[in-house]
Amino acid sequence: MSGNIQLLSDTLAAAKAEGRSALIAYLPAGFPTVDGGIAAVKAVFEGGADIVEIGLPHSDPVLDGPVIQTADDIALKGGVKIADVMRTVREAHGATGKPVLVMTYWNPIDRYG
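Predicted structure:
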């Protein structure tokens, strides 16, 4: 198992060993700004999250609710790019050592290549 998958597996196993569910939070990257989003991820970890899923903003997030759609729109209007999402992941994981995942639709990955 790679280091990242092992960290995720170990985090889930630790929560289970403690007799609780893992707290997995979701935040869209770049909301309200890239730096603000990074600070928010760190704060969520400080607040007790075990894992954070970072959403890659998408121009047509039809499977998400209105709150996430609005946050994605704000992030995209602010100019967030895939590189900003990766920076968010790097900085959040680097500061906390905790698992950070990326959630996205297929279209941005297909466009990015």
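Summary: Strands lie at 24-28, 51-55, 100-103.
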